[in-house]
Amino acid sequence: MGIVGAIACVATAAAFAAEPKADAAIKNKNIEAAVFLDPKIKQDAALSADCLAEGRKWIEKNATDAAAARKLDPVLFRNGTWSFERRYSVRSTVDGHYVSIVRSDYMDTGGAHPNSDVDTILWDAVAKKRISIRPFFTETADSGPTMTAMLKGVIASLRIEKNKRDATETANAQWFRNLEPKLLKIGAVTLAPSTEAGKSSGLTFHYPPHAVGPYAEGQYVIFLPWETLKPYLTLEGMRIFGGARPKNDENDASAN
Q1: Which of 92, 95, 187, 248 is most buried, by the most CB atoms less than 10 A from its CB?
Q2: Containing H/E element for 131?
Q3: Element (H, E) at 36
Q4: How far apart are CA 214 and CA 207, in angstroms?
Q5: pLDDT 10s digits, 143-174
Q6: In angstroms, how far is CA 139 from the centroid of its own chain?
Q7: If you compute the radius of gyration of the chain from its CA atoms, what whole number of angstroms results?
Q8: Which of 243, 138, 149 minimizes the C-alpha distance to 196?
Q9: DSSP per residue, 72-120
Q10: pTM, whole model, 2 decimals?
């Protein structure tokens, strides 16, 4: 084997080694689907089981839907099998208690372009269950003071981010119409990492392509500093928030 061939083999082996093995997968004539868990998630047995159970249900449902679609219209698969991928990634761990996870989905069903989606999970490592951000705020009523201030901050930050992307023409009420001052309507949220150990610097809101702008604009990750919401924090909120957003986290978000 020549030097070029040897280098090619090494490169191929390295590529395979770099790609982690799926934690759950389905592959047949209709679909190739896989679920990947962040190694940090696997360190918590309860969290790992929770995410994996949800991920398996997701790929099983997509496999069932794909089989039904092929039976109804085989032409839908003229370009090959459909592809689905879900990744669970740890965004932050606060005080060893609250773990924020970003759940990223990729779907290619032979359309004009693949689609993607994003959602989040906030995990209470002590209670071993999913929770919301409610414990950190004195009230989170729909259209109440907290949610109203939160939405105002999100929209202001979206406008700033769109300006950075030279997308000011979509920084308008038409694209923000689906955002409401409600926990379930404001966007998928995580606790942002902080320069202060064990703390969170605020909230980050994750919007998939086409949620707050045209598909071509891609995903938006919007940051809201904890100081903006300080008047509405509970004692637990005051305890876990502090510090500033790390510069590398800001750069990573801008790259999305």
Answers
A1: 187
A2: strand 129-131
A3: strand 31-37
A4: 12
A5: 999 999 999 999 999 999 999 999 999 999 99
A6: 25
A7: 21
A8: 243
A9: H-GGGGTT--EEEEEEEEEEEEETTTEEEEEEEEEEESSSSS-EEEEEE
A10: 0.89
